[in-house]
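> forwarded from #structure-qc
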């Protein structure tokens, strides 16, 4: 009889994935997994097999097909509304993705880089003025991506606090599934108003660009919602948890300043803040020596794949000089993160600026007291109290 296991959750340290994942990987890159709703599916922990699943068109990303391995969310999703292409398969996915790729232009990213530098400076100035201690999440990690994604979309400054408050509420653990759908409808309403305004008076932002195509208001509102959601929490958590990791590894902050591009890739690999993705095969598939039947959900642990010793030497070490470009922190295959270049620019600008401004930056509480987002779809920290030596 094959032993089945449930999704490991508890983390041994703030930076390491559950220790059981490594033990499971020793059994093989794919093992049977019992899902909380009673479904019997699979868990992939190997790096090569993770990429194989994510690149295989026989595996669907549709939300109504998948079972989730943790009980914190609805066990089965609803079909994606028009525009929510992260939960669609080709050819629907391809159509939306092409429209969006055309909007993530080099010119727009270059202009955003200058804004990221400005916004970072503004946050650091405010921290310095106020003096230590500070919550790095509220003062730095959250506002930088928030301003950037709002500028990318063209959310007017006056509307930003309302958008960000709704999105923060939506990503929190306290809402029931029904409340989440209601909150989603409310944000969509806000974005629809914005779309109407862009149609009447287009500017050179991304939403205005999309209104020139043949997408209807519902599709545009959903795409706007998805970009806000994807752009806010992810980068914010990389900035906060990344800073935490740099502070807890002696010499790491100095090493970061050596080759920042490489250091950012290593932080992405080491932290893999999107812990897993779920895919469902549309037909029976032979995978890593087992037969996965049509409809059996496969949870791909990005966190485990990025710690696979078969791919990365001493994977549990944070080694900022490592070439970790093949990590799967941004996913892999057709759904690989659309905003990855933007996220990279944000991190490449923000980390060095933070440590250059505050060379004596340190935690203001013992590491064990930093509240971790173990209860959230995107891992990170809720708050990061920090201090530094302020001039007398
Ligand atoms: C460090 C920050 C980020 C991380 C770790 C991250 C991670 C990911 C991952 C793992 C996926 C794959 C989802 C899947 O296959 O189901 C993804 C997709 C996506 N990301 Fe990101 N992301 C980040 C930042 C961003 C930003 C800043 C944006 C927007 C500006 C963004 C927009 C998207 C979109 C639209 C998708 C869906 C792409 C598709 O389905 O074709 N992400 N991201």
């Amino acid at each position: 009889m094959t032993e089945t296991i449930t999704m490991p959750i508890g983390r041994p340290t703030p930076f390491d994935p559950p220790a059981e994942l490594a033990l499971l990987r020793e059994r093989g890159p794919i093992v049977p997994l019992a899902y909380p709703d009673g479904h019997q599916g699979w868990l992939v922990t190997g790096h090569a097999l993770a990429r194989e699943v994510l690149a295989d068109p026989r595996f669907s990303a549709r939300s109504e097909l998948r079972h989730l391995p943790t009980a914190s969310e609805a066990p089965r999703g609803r079909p994606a509304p028009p525009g929510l292409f992260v939960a669609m398969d080709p050819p629907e996915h391809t159509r939306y993705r092409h429209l969006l790729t055309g909007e993530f232009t080099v010119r727009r990213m270059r202009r955003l880089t200058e804004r990221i530098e400005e916004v970072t400076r503004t946050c650091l100035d405010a921290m310095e003025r106020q003096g230590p201690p500070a919550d790095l999440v509220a003062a730095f990690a959250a506002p930088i991506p928030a301003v950037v994604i709002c500028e990318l979309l063209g959310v007017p400054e006056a509307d930003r606090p309302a958008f960000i408050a709704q999105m923060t509420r939506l990503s929190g653990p306290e809402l029931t599934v029904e409340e989440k759908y209601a909150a989603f409808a409310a944000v969509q309403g806000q974005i629809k108003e914005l779309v109407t305004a862009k149609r009447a008076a287009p500017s050179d932002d991304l939403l205005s660009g999309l209104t020139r195509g043949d997408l209807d208001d519902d599709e545009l509102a959903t795409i706007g919602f998805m970009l806000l959601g994807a752009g806010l929490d992810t980068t914010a958590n990389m900035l906060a948890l990344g800073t935490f990791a740099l502070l807890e590894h002696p010499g790491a902050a100095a090493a970061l300043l050596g080759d920042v591009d490489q250091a950012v890739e290593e932080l992405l690999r080491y932290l893999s803040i999107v812990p897993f993705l779920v895919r469902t095969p549309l037909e029976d598939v032979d995978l890593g020596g087992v037969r996965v039947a049509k409809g059996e959900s496969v949870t791909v642990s990005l966190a485990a794949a990025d710690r696979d010793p078969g791919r990365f030497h001493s994977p549990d070490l944070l080694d900022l000089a490592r070439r970790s470009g093949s990590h799967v922190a941004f996913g892999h295959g057709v759904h690989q993160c659309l905003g990855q270049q933007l996220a990279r620019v944000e991190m490449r600008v923000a980390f060095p600026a933070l440590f250059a401004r505050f060379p004596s930056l340190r935690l203001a509480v013992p590491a064990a007291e930093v509240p971790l987002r173990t209860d959230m779809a995107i891992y990170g920290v809720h708050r990061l109290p920090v201090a530094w030596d302020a001039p007398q």
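QC bot note: The longest helix spans residues 217-248. The first strand starts at residue 30 and ends at 34.
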